[in-house]
Design goal:
about 280 residues, two-stranded antiparallel sheet, 2 strands, mainly alpha, 10 helices
Length: about 280
């Protein structure tokens, strides 16, 4: 007897949905787009309000663990740069590209009303990227109109995506482009710089390790909580590139460089910066 109302309710629900879609098909494209957006937001809100069970509970908890870890993600990098008074080996292009991609991702998640546990670490990393960019500009003595112009352009971009002034289609397109932004702008320049230099400079091993662990965990939480393919693609690609950066930084950290001094003696040093000598310049971190 208890199963009959459930069947009747299900049929009524599907009949109502069919009527909604038939009415929407007679409306203008703009009206249909608004209707679809409203249905998505209502569905997201319903899922968020539903009780979490099993894997969802674990994914939510893991999301907050990632958030907690991300709050100190760039701390080793900031300390290293501040201690050595140098931004050598840290790519400005990579950090700016990462900041832009994070801005788009935060706006995209807010627009679709995803739970904060599924993207909270992006906000923390966004703030830390601003600090790192400021240190790079300071230690590389980059000043003047270029800094002010870049800051003004970023503020305008931030306003456009956060307020929705850019439009939904543009925002979705920008989110799809973050895969390329992170790869071509955020990670590849840093990887190429390390390859050309033969070392990772001031790049922190701890920060690279936290980045990779965060990517691996975020793949799982994205699959469970949102199942968003755009976000999944960006996280997965970021994990591969972060693994390459971690391998480069570990290689540099364990590299032993032999320097022949003027007397012809050989010195072996582990984990220290080697100053310029007679036979060339060698760096390690």
């Amino acid at each position: 007897m208890s199963a009959i109302p459930a069947v009747q309710f299900s049929r009524t629900h599907f009949t109502h949905q069919a009527r909604v879609y038939r009415c929407a098909s007679l409306c203008s494209p703009a009206t249909r787009q608004k209707s679809r957006t409203r249905q998505v937001l209502i569905t997201r809100a319903g899922v968020a309000a539903a009780p979490l069970v099993g894997s969802q509970q674990f994914a939510t908890l893991l999301g907050y663990v990632i958030l907690a870890g991300s709050c100190v993600r760039s701390f080793p990098q900031v300390v290293r740069m501040s201690k050595n008074k140098s931004a050598q080996g840290v790519s400005l292009t990579s950090n700016i590209s990462e900041l832009v991609a994070y801005t788009i991702t935060v706006a995209y998640n807010l627009h679709l009303a995803y739970p904060f546990s599924s993207y909270g670490e992006i906000v923390a990393c966004w703030l830390q990227d601003i600090v790192i960019i400021g240190l790079i500009l300071r230690f590389n003595s980059i000043k003047g109109w270029r800094v002010w112009a870049g800051t003004a352009a970023f503020c305008a971009f931030l306003w456009a995506v956060m307020t929705g002034a850019c439009g939904q289609r543009v925002l979705f397109g920008l989110q799809a482009s973050t895969v390329a932004i992170i790869a071509l702008g955020g990670r590849v320049p840093q990887i190429w710089m390390n390859y050309q230099r033969g070392n990772s400079g001031e790049l922190s091993v701890a920060t690279c390790m936290l980045n990779l662990f965060g990517n691996v965990a975020r793949v799982y939480t994205t699959f469970v909580l949102t199942k968003d393919n755009l976000i999944m693609a960006g996280v997965a690609l970021g994990g591969v590139l972060n693994a390459i950066l971690l391998a480069q930084s570990l290689h540099t950290a364990h590299m032993v460089v032999q320097v022949v001094d003027k007397a012809g003696q050989t010195a072996a040093t582990h984990g220290k910066r080697v100053q310029p000598g007679t036979h060339g310049v060698c760096f390690y971190t």
